[in-house]
Amino acid sequence: MPSALKADGITVQFGGVVAVDNVSLDVQQGTILGLIGPNGAGKTTLFNALTGFVPLKAGRIALHGQDVTHLAPHARVRAGMGRTFQTERPFEELTLLENVLVAAFLREPKRRHAEQLAMQVLEQVGLADRHDQPALDLNLARRRRLELAKALAVQPRVLFLDEMMAGLNPPALKEMIGFVRELAAQDLTIVMVEHIMEAIIELSDHVIVMANGHVITEGLPREVIEDPRVITAYLGED
Amino acid sequence: MNRHYLILSGLVVLGILYPQAFPGYLSVAITLLLFAGWATAWDILGGWAGQVSLGHASFVGLGGYFVAVGASQYGIAPWWAVAMALVAAAVLAYLWGRLTFKLTGPYFTLSTIAIAEILRLVAINEGWLTGGATGVFIMSLPEPFGLDLFARQTNYYLALAFAALTVLTVIAMSRNKFGYQLRAVREDEDSAMASGINPTTVKLKAFMLSGALTALGGGIYAIFLSFLEPHVIFYLLLSVQIALTAIIGGRGTIWGPCVGALLVVGSGEVFRTTFAEANMLIYGLLIMLVVMFLPRGIVGEPARYLIRRAYAKRAQS
């Protein structure tokens, strides 16, 4: 299988603190990589480094063989990365369709075509029937789906999901897991930072566990969560 | 078809008829139209892109000086002078944006004040070109098709065309890719980048467009005044007035700046004649009332209310 995302020796430093220390990963096309670890482990920082929102101290990043290490975040999106944000902030006064339209314009500069693409994506996440509603006061589950729609509308090849499942009630969680699984089935490559173990176990093909900026272990989800080092990282030592 | 185009066409027709109905009130109408156009142009950057400038007098001055100096010193026809001013304004906006868009919030705004001030000092000190502190007179202008450019009626129609052009630009922009990019950048630059938008490029484009349109109005203003003084045209007060007109009317709305111009220029005129010295007091009070009770502006606040109400209705059904 071809490598969709390859990162070597990623190091991020904030002042004197090394937030991510020499982390490497290689994600195969159409697979899901789960990124877990206790709070402060450096997951989100690594995530932001991969998507270009945080500068690297060292390391290289390649997207489908293209070196994107020195590209700005918006240029990486153009090159094929899509991402969601942990705290989603839709444009409240715009309708759902217009919210997605902003992203859809990246690949379809003509309004009519961009609108078609945006509608298609809204259908994919089950928000099509609300397309002309303002994004104001959308509930959490729908805000998440809108955030996902915005990320999909740039037609990414590698999709980065930042804690999409946090705070969702069981039915909404199940639904979101369904969406993500469907996307992977369509050959999209996914990297997700997640705290909800249920989602990690159900979805990930491969899991990387981080603590204190390092990778402490990686492997299949079931193996990883039973690893004593992981349990220690989460719960601390006796 | 978009209803805004219809409203604009209706207003333009009314505008064309206005000199027949009120031939004695052309000057105040010209001022109103120029402010409507400037505030609308300002709003492309200040409202739609969310970058508040308090230096737009620079562009007014640039447009004005190109026309005035061109006519008085070099015999350049005003339309060529305006064309050059548009390019100069776009270049100024580009360089200025390149330097300052790394600054956010109040720092960008402060830098804009500085630039208008620099241009004012240049206009005062480079007397060989600009006439220095005494200013520059436009003695004569060519007469295209026998049209007297100094005539109030001609000034009026130029101002009307300018205001209509800026509003037309914003209506078109509000529905296209660029308009959505501007809104995205204003709301959240990170989120805009995640949609593949380069915030700096988008802000630069907005600044260049806003500056060039403002300079166009500046050129018409110079013909209207036929006399330019650096203290007046590059003055901070003019920049503040342009910004306030848009803010009072409603930033980031299509009609807000025009409504703001009606209120600010119209009431300014009424208050000046009725209340004489007290007019600034009332002007200040008006601004306070809008800021306190209608923070999104006179057009922005009801627009938001309508959106909320439409949402509430849908939520009930």
TrEMBL record, chain A:
SMART domains, per the entry: AAA (SM00382)
Matching InterPro entries: AAA+_ATPase, ABC_AA/LPS_Transport, ABC_transporter-like_ATP-bd, BCA_ABC_TP_C, P-loop_NTPase
Alphabetized GO MF terms: ATP binding
CDD domains: ABC_Mj1267_LivG_branched
A Pfam family matched in the record: BCA_ABC_TP_C
Alphabetical list of PROSITE patterns matching this protein: ABC_TRANSPORTER_2
Superkingdom assignment: Bacteria
Domain ABC transporter: 5-237
Matching Gene3D superfamilies: P-loop containing nucleotide triphosphate hydrolases
Keywords: ATP-binding, Nucleotide-binding, Transport
Keyword Transmembrane: no
Protein name (Swiss-Prot/TrEMBL): ABC transporter ATP-binding protein
TrEMBL record, chain B:
Localization (cell): Cell inner membrane
Coiled-coil region list: none
Membrane topology: Multi-pass membrane protein
Segments passing through the bilayer: 5-22, 52-71, 77-97, 118-142, 154-173, 206-226, 232-249, 281-299
Claim: Transmembrane helix is one of the keywords in the record: yes
Keyword Cell wall biogenesis/degradation on entry: no
Chief location bin: membrane
Pfam families per UniProt: BPD_transp_2
Key words of the record: Cell membrane, Membrane, Transmembrane, Transmembrane helix
Protein name: Branched-chain amino acid ABC transporter permease
Lineage: Bacteria, Pseudomonadati, Pseudomonadota, Gammaproteobacteria, Oceanospirillales
